[in-house]
Amino acid sequence: MTPLLEIKNLKTRFYTQDGVVRAVNDVSYTMDSGEILGVVGESGCGKSVHALSMMQLIPYPPGKITNGEVWLDGQDLLTLNEEEMQKVRGRDIAMIFQDPMTSLNPVFTIGFQITEALLLHNDMTKREAKDRAGELLELVGIPGAKDRLDDYPHQFSGGMRQRAMIAMGLSCEPKLLIADEPTTALDVTIQAQIIDLVKKLQEELGMAIMWITHDLGVVAELAHTINVMYAGSIIETGQIHNIYKETKHPYTIGLLGSLPRLDDAPGTELVSIPGLPPDLLALPEGCPFAARCEYRIEKCLVEKPPLEGIDGKDHSVACWRWEEIAGIGSK
Amino acid sequence: MKAEMKKLVEVRNLKKYFPGTEVSIFRAGNDVKAVDGVSFDIYEQETLGLVGETGCGKTTVGRTMLHLYQPTAGNIIFDGVDLNDLGERELRFARSKMQMIFQDPYASLNPRMTVGSIVGAPLDVHTDQSRTEKRERVQELLDIVGLNPDFVNRYPHEFSGGQRQRIGIARALALNPDFVVCDEPISSLDVSIQAQVVNLLEDLQKKLGLTYLFIAHDLSMVRHISDRMAVMYLGKIVELADRDEIFLNSLHPYTQALMSAVPVPDPDLAETKDRIILDGDIPNPSNPPLGCNFNTRCPVAIDICFKEEPEYREVKDNHWVACHLVK
Ligand SMILES: Nc1ncnc2c1ncn2[C@@H]1O[C@H](COP(=O)(O)OP(=O)(O)O)[C@@H](O)[C@H]1O
Ligand SMILES: Nc1ncnc2c1ncn2[C@@H]1O[C@H](COP(=O)(O)OP(=O)(O)O)[C@@H](O)[C@H]1O
Ligand code: SF4
Ligand SMILES: [Mg+2]
Ligand SMILES: [Mg+2]
Fold it and tell me: Whole-prediction pTM value?
């Protein structure tokens, strides 16, 4: 089966006054249709920039995609011009963000905005579009949906705006929905509503979802596969079970260890990763995690470990010593 | 909590209302009932966790406890003394023993002050130490929180979020407080840095015998650090108990939903977990529902819940809850 999406050697740089920010460093992976991929990593590790790069939404200057291919359905998106790309956005790939107000315009009603999105990509009448907009709001669980089409975004609560944005994202039945921290600003009970909703919609509509988050808990609830990013690179990737239960990379092990567990005994100390992520303006040679890694050897400082597949598993890791480390720290 | 443990802070029927925004020049808006009658104790050297969703009143509880906000009603008894009974000078002294660590390590540090003057500011106000004494104390404080004492002349922007939070902690410790309100001290930090700061706070508690009110919305972190936990909803405490009791035997339907909504970083557990999904949003605190204020979202509400406010009471040893359905 050919994958839905294939990213090859993607590199994105920002040329700033202070120097070159190496935001995305040689990222390659594939996604199947219907797959839910969780992209995790701490702030600044390149999660958003890599997704925006796929969509050709990197502001130039200062940003520039310096290398790579993004194959979707037999075409390389990075070779498309702006007009062709606009058709892809919304129709083939939809994107939703942490702050719904980046996509919702405060001066237009919710109904108008969804209707516009529908008319842009579909051959339908205004009447049909308006009916469909009502259905979509209902689909995402807005109470009294049809009566709320004439509401403005400020009349919606945070959770409802996020639902409205999802409705807009789904309006053209995209093949891929990219959700960038869509629940980060929401409270847990509202987050639970949204996760529940997205799971149901995915089962019904079958689109692939890329869920970007810093929260390893959220993606454990919904992803099939995980990419762990660090300093602009994928350092571990695989089936969700492999990532959480057969963790290989020292960074992922550290990250999972620094989360409190609900079965911790009183007085348990959290495993913390010492130090800070590297400065992307001055990325060291070698393994990007080396400065913080307790397993570091000389080689780690001079040569960057490639993302290497583990035999017989859908699981890859970028660490020179993963075979030795395996089992030491993973739970 | 064991009977022989000493109560350090007692909070009695505390209320804090903020004036509502004007509806028109003739009509003031309803008061925002940010905190609407909460009572609890904090024992010496324990950590009481306070959880609840945005806007439920956690920060207001913390600030009102320190009299940073004047309470609308109710009492704060600190170390046996009611803060309402204190004159200005005495209140200032009492306050020096109660400190706060803030959520946003960017906004809470003055960008134009050096780390030395930020951490030393409380010493200027509350002590008459000489410059050298202050300087030594500041360096000692930086050392305690794991920062290089030579950093005194640097400015906040030269530090990462985690380091700034350490600066805020050093400032809070300057006057040797007994009690510290930690208001979401790690919410804005990355996961790997959160653990560093939480470990530091736990360490300091042991070393200095501190008592904490630890406010957060991350339940698993609060469970990790707390001895007991209180759950707030719309200005009221709905449940309070030992941390394991709250997690294993929660009685209030809101607590149960909140616990079940916490995402667990374990795909196996996530799959088997029973999730209670609450409908709707949190009501507006200037116009809370009558009866039990959770009734608009409660999956098990009965008639009486819409008429009478449930009493907050101790239903078994050290387990407090406000719900009509709990016998
Ligand atoms: N417009 C920009 N100019 C300069 N640097 C940028 C710009 N946008 C993003 N970056 C940098 O790129 C890196 C990756 O950012 P991002 O992808 O947003 O991280 P995250 O993983 O938090 O989504 C960060 O170091 C960020 O500072
Ligand atoms: N200074 C203030 N003036 C007016 N309203 C306030 C003020 N501080 C908080 N509030 C309101 O009080 C309620 C509780 O707020 P807060 O204590 O900050 O909640 P939390 O810390 O749990 O998020 C909210 O509705 C908030 O808008
Ligand atoms: S390559 Fe070396 S430094 Fe990098 S994670 Fe592996 S052991 Fe650590
Ligand atoms: Mg981002
Ligand atoms: Mg708060």
Answer: 0.92
C-beta of residue A257 within 8 angstroms of C-beta of residue A329: yes
Return the pLDDT at B199.
94
Could you read off the pLDDT tens digit of each residue along chain B, which spans 327 residues? 555 789 999 999 999 999 987 766 777 778 999 999 999 999 999 999 999 998 999 999 999 999 999 999 999 999 999 999 999 999 999 999 999 999 888 888 999 999 999 999 999 999 999 999 999 999 999 999 999 999 999 999 999 889 999 999 999 999 999 999 999 999 888 888 899 999 999 999 999 999 999 999 888 899 999 999 999 999 999 999 999 999 999 999 999 999 999 898 999 988 888 889 998 888 888 889 999 999 999 999 999 999 999 999 999 999 999 999 998
Report the separation in Å between the CA atom of A288 and the middle of ligand 3, taken as the mean of its atom positions. 8
Reported residue count of chain A is 331
Angle subtended at Cα A219 by Cα A74 and Cα B50, rounded to the nearest 5 degrees: 155
pLDDT in tens, B209-225: 999 999 998 888 999 99
Beta bridge mates, A6: A30, A71
Which tokens is B149 given? 């004492």
Which residue type is seen at A313? K
Q: Look at B192 and A159 and tell me if their CB atoms are within 8 Å.
A: no
The atom number, within ligand 2, closest to the CA of B69 reads: 1
* DSSP 8-state secondary structure symbol assigned to residue B20: P
Complex ipTM value: 0.88
Ligand 1 pocket, residue A5 CB under 6 Å: no
Q: What's the rounded Cα separation, in Å, for the pair A93 and B314?
A: 54
What six digits make up the tokens of B168? Answer: 């805020």
Residues B83, B86, B89, B93, CA torsion sign: negative
What is the Cα A303 distance to its own chain's centre?
A: 28
pLDDT tens for B76-86 read 999 999 999 99
Helix (H) or strand (E) holding B122: helix B115-126
Alpha carbon distance B222, B236 (integer Å): 18
Q: Which residues of B5-21 are buried (b: 16+ CB within 10 A; e: fewer)?
A: eeebbbbeebbbbeebe
Q: Which residues contact B252 (CB under 8 A, 6 or more apart)?
A: B231, B238, B239, B321, B322, B323, B326
CA angle B262, A185, B292 (to 5 degrees): 60
- Tell whether B249 lies on the interface with A, counting CB pairs under 8 A: no
Q: Is A253 in the pocket of ligand 3 (CB under 6 A)?
A: no
> Residue B161's Cα: distance from chain center in Å?
20
Please list every residue in chain A whose beta carbon sits closer than 8 Å to the beta carbon of residue B195. Answer: 257-259, 270-273
A66 in Cβ contact with A11 (< 8 Å) = yes
SS3 of chain A: the string is: CCCCEEEEEEEEEEEECCEEEEEEEEEEEEECCCCEEEEECCCCCCHHHHHHHHCCCCCCCCEEEEEEEEEECCEEHHHCCHHHHHHHHHHCEEEECCCHHHCCCCCCCHHHHHHHHHHHHCCCCHHHHHHHHHHHHHHCCCCCHHHHCCCCHHHCCHHHHHHHHHHHHHCCCCCEEEEECCCCCCCHHHHHHHHHHHHHHHHHHCCEEEEEECCHHHHHHHCCEEEEEECCEEEEEEEHHHHHHCCCCHHHHHHHHCCCCCCCCCCCCCCCCCCCCCCHHHCCCCCCCHHHCCCCCHHHHHCCCCCEECCCCCEEECCCCHHHHCCCCCC
